[in-house]
Design brief:
By secondary structure, this protein is of the alpha+beta class. It has a single domain (about 5-190, about 285-415), classed as FAD/NAD(P)-binding domain. Helices cover about 35% and strands about 30% of the residues. The protein contains twelve helices and 24 strands. It has helices at about 15-25, 65-70, 75-80, 115-130, 180, 245-250, 255-265, 315-335, 340-370, 375-390, 390-400, 415-420; strands at about 5, 10, 35, 60, 80-85, 85-90, 100, 110-115, 135, 140-145, 150-155, 160-165, 170, 185-205, 210-215, 220-225, 235-240, 275, 280-290, 295, 295-300, 305, 410, 420-425. Strands 6, 7, 14, 15, 16, 17, 18, 19 and 22 form a nine-stranded mixed sheet that branches. Strands 9-3-2-13-21-20 form a six-stranded mixed sheet, covered by helices on one side. Strand 20 and strand 21 form a beta hairpin. Helix 1 packs parallel to helix 4, helix 1 (about 15-25) runs parallel beside helix 8 and helix 10 packs across helix 11 (about 390-400). The longest helix is centred in the last third of the chain and has 28 residues, at about 340-370. The chain is globular and about 65 Å long. The N and C termini lie far apart (about 50 Å). It comes from Marinobacter lutaoensis.
Length: about 425
């Protein structure tokens, strides 16, 4: 196959990789972008053809992520099927502690949104088809060697190897693809000893655009409003934390018994659980990479870090991180520097690491605080929830973390035309 020359190579065309490709095309249009994706692009897949599926997997989008997608011109399309979260209810099962957050108290339309992954993917691909971004799909990155202009990547495509040369490779294909390990990046893993069971459920009472975070001795459970963006329906997206034994028991139950077990854990705030859809599950681990950049290579998204889903911050953290990377690309191009220089990628890592540390601490501390605990500590945390509900400064801080506004985020003005950045510092 004929070698391909480009500037930026993105390994992975999922939500993170496609968002990065769109951000670069919008904000650093001088760069040629090539996406290498394992799965073929369906030629007939378009947002106009989208029909929501009951069993569709979804992602929680923080308010800060909405602001980023607005900057990229994607939010008008995404919002057509994004269910707003206008209220958040946090409670400790069997105890008095609880706190309630309301978007209207903070002069916002919503605290966040819930969108189907497939819908987000369709909107991203539709937007990318209007850009010069090149897609190699189905294809797979097999290896990398240094090259005079940056990196030379071996891509397996149609049963043959093809060389793609560029100035930088960004690994955005998730934490389980193996490319990260193939390239020699070392990870650190902390196993929570739990699993996340994911499913969509229906309840007899409408969700009223409320997200519930429920803690007990077994771990957290989240129910996120799902379905119509304008009508408070009866469907919610479930994230249920279970240890290995309880996971096996629940998966073996018929659906009616799954609903009864779920009712025991969650309670009756949404009435009776009437339906549970197809269940998927995965082990919960905190995965980090000590040095996620090197000359010509950077990791983003789950390839760089995987979080517990308790606070719904995984994709939102990834989105803020890739925008920080795009900010450094913009600066490098303006200054006549190579986007693959270690100093450029290290600047991205330094900025993103502060956000990462805050987000990991926020998510991890919730797991440890609301895990199994002796009675005095359990009583203290319940008092803390009540205090959070009563103390405006503490509540504002908590809301900003939940909305993805707790760290410094880059915002671009007319970067695609002027090369100038506009910053909004939310610290």
């Amino acid at each position: 196959m004929t070698p391909v020359e480009t500037d930026l190579i993105i390994a992975g065309g999922g939500l993170a990789g496609a968002s990065l490709a769109l951000a670069v095309s919008r904000l650093v249009p001088e760069l040629r972008v090539t996406v290498v994706e394992n799965h073929p692009l369906a030629p007939d897949a378009a947002p106009d053809d989208y029909q929501p599926s009951y069993d569709a997997r979804s992602t929680a989008l923080a308010w800060g992520s909405r602001l980023i997608f607005e900057q990229l011109g994607l939010w008008p399309a995404l919002s057509e099927h994004a269910t707003p979260i206008r209220h958040i209810h946090v409670s400790d099962r069997g105890r008095f502690g609880a706190t309630r957050l309301h978007a209207e108290d903070h002069r916002q339309d919503a605290l966040g949104y819930v969108a189907d992954n497939r819908w987000m993917g369709l909107c991203l691909v539709a937007a990318l088809r209007e850009t010069p971004v090149r897609w190699l799909a189905p294809a797979e990155v097999r290896g990398l060697v240094p090259a005079p202009t940056g990196v030379a990547v071996t891509v397996r495509r149609e049963g043959r190897d093809q060389v793609v040369t560029g100035r930088c490779l960004v690994v955005a294909d998730g934490g389980r693809s193996g490319l990260r390990e193939t390239l020699g990046f070392r990870t650190r893993t902390e196993d929570y000893g739990q699993n996340a069971l994911i499913a969509n459920v229906s309840t007899s009472e409408p969700h009223r655009f409320t997200a519930y975070e429920r803690f007990d001795e077994s771990g957290p459970m989240a129910l996120l409003p799902h379905g119509s963006p304008t009508r408070a329906g009866h469907q919610s997206a479930l994230v249920w934390t279970l240890d290995d034994r309880n996971l096996a028991e629940v998966l073996a139950l018929p659906d009616d018994d799954k609903c009864r077990r779920l009712q025991e854990r969650f309670g009756w705030r949404l009435g009776r659980f009437t339906r549970i859809g197809a269940c998927s599950h995965y082990p919960l681990k905190l995965v980090t990479v000590d040095e996620p950049v090197r000359p010509g290579v950077a990791l983003i998204g789950n390839a760089a870090h995987a979080l517990h889903p308790v606070a719904g911050q995984g994709f939102n953290l990834a989105l803020r991180g890739l925008m920080t990377l795009v900010e450094q690309f913009r600066r490098a191009v303006d200054q006549g520097r190579d986007i693959g220089e270690l100093s450029v990628l290290a600047a991205y890592q330094r900025q993103h690491r502060q956000d990462w540390l805050k987000t990991v601490y926020f998510s991890d501390s919730l797991i440890r605080l609301f895990g199994p605990a002796p009675a005095p500590l359990a009583g203290a945390r319940d008092a803390g929830l009540v205090g959070l509900d009563l103390l405006p400064p503490a509540k504002r801080w908590f809301v900003r973390q939940a909305m993805g506004l707790g760290g410094r985020r880059p915002f671009f003005g007319n970067a695609g035309r002027t090369g100038r950045e506009v910053y909004h510092d939310d610290r």
